[in-house]
Design goal:
The protein is mainly α. It has 11 helices and 2 strands, in the order H-H-H-H-E-E-H-H-H-H-H-H-H. A two-stranded antiparallel sheet has the order 1-2. Helix 1 packs antiparallel against helix 10. The radius of gyration is 20 Å and the shape is globular.
Length: about 300
Amino acid sequence: MAYFLQQIANAVPVAALYAALAFGYSIAFAVTRRADIAYGALFAFAAQMFVLFAGFGWTQLWLVLPAALAFGAAVALSYGVGAGLVIGRHVMRPLAFSSDNTVVVAALGVVLVLMETARLASDTRSLWLPPLLATPVVFWNDPAFPVVLTVLQLANTLAMAAIVVIGHMFLARSAWGRRWRAVSEDRLAAELCGVDAAGVYLSAYAGAALIASLTGILAVSYYGNMDFGAGLVFGVKVLFIAAIGGAGAPLLSALGGAAMGLAETLWGAYGDFLWRDLVIFSALVLLLVIFRRERPLP
C-alpha cells in the first residue's frame, strides 16, 4: 500500500507538468487547428537555456547560486518567448491556414533548429544543475516505506497548477479571451466582426511560448538536465497529451495531460519501463480512434 501511495505522490508533479504543457499547447492550437510539434521544442529550448545561463552566471559572473538561477531563468524566458514570437510571426502564421502538411514540415524544421542551437551553444556538453530544495516532505511516516516528496516537487506542482488556473481565468474573463474564443470558433466570422485574427493568433502563440518556457524552467530545475533531443520527444508527446481531452479546449487538454501523467507513472512503477512509451502511445492512438468526432473546420 505504501508503495502504491508513493507512486501516486510521484505522479502528481508529472501530471501537473503535462497538464500545464497541454494547456499552453491548446491555446495556440485552438486558433489554427494545425498540429504543431514545435511547442515541445520551445519547452526543451527554454530549459536548456536556463541550465546554460545559470551555469554561465555561476562560473563566469561569479554570482551566488540564487542570483545565478534567477539570471538563467530571466534569460531563458527571454529566449523562449522571443523564439516563440519569431516562429509564430515568420513561420507558423503564414502557414497556419494552409495545408496541414506544410505546418508539420515547418514545425519539424523549427524543432531541428532549436535543438541544434541549444547543442551548439552548450558546445555539445551535457550540463547539470545541482539538487535544489531537495528537503523531503513526509506524507506518511511508515518506518518501512515512508511516502515523501521534495520541497521542489511540491513547489513545481503548485506553480504549474497556478499556471493552468490563472490561464483559464484569463481566457474566461478577459477581453482578449473573448477574441480568442471567437477566432477559435470561426476565424472568418470573427474577422467580419472586426477581430484581428492574425494578431490573436500571434499573441496566442506568444502566450503558449511563455507557458512552455515557464514549465521548461520548472521541470529542469527538478530533473537537473534536459537532453538535446528532448524537443522532438516532448513535441510529439504534448501533441498526443492535448488530444486526449480535446486539443482545442485548454482546460480539458490539461485534464487529459494530468491523466497521462498518472498513467505513465503507474506503468513505470508496475510495468516494464522499456515498453512504457509504446504502451502509452498505443493506448492514446486507440482512444483517439474510438472517440474521434468529425467536425467541419471553419
